[in-house]
Amino acid sequence: MTTNAHAPRTAHAPRTARGVSWAEFHRAEPGFAGAVEQRFGTYTHHVLATLRRDGSPRLSGLEADFREGEMWLGMMPNSLKALDLRRDDRFAMYANPGEGSDMSGGDVRVSGRAVEVTEPAELARWAAGMPQGEVPEEFHLFRVEVEEVVRVTIEAADIVFRTWKPGRPLRTIRRGNDDALPREDDDAPQGEGG
User: Fold this and answer.
1) What pLDDT band is residue 101 in, cutting at 50, 70 and 90?
2) Which of 23, 57, 145, 194 is in the most buried spot, having the most CB atoms within 10 Å?
């Protein structure tokens, strides 16, 4: 298997001070992480936001792959979204909301950094786990470093925002359909700060 000839921004970079692997997120908040992963698994295609060279946003369709404790983003060689990520690794990904407006499973989005994987053995291992015939000979592969996860649901008369960031407890903020101020639930385990 070969990879794109362009030199990557970095080869298998270490975790950033801000981002964590999907497995680390899952260990910190297993119920929340499971709900987010399930929401991404409901549909195949989602929306990826990257930054163009001029700093403006680019939206592209993309699949999310959750395996081996990681969230992976695979892309065709020299796709504009891959070139965007090589230049600036920041991204956000929004799970396909599906049909209608019932928000079944809620709105879900993940943001962070996309670290390009260039190690041939890692690329081969990822490709081997894909269904037969779904991996092109050349592709870009990025491993997600999670910096923020948000899930928005409707519960009774409230819109509920659940937000997680590395090193912080899960936050739950509720807003009604009135002029009352938002209310924050106390989700933090005893002894942890926010």
Assistant:
1) low
2) 145
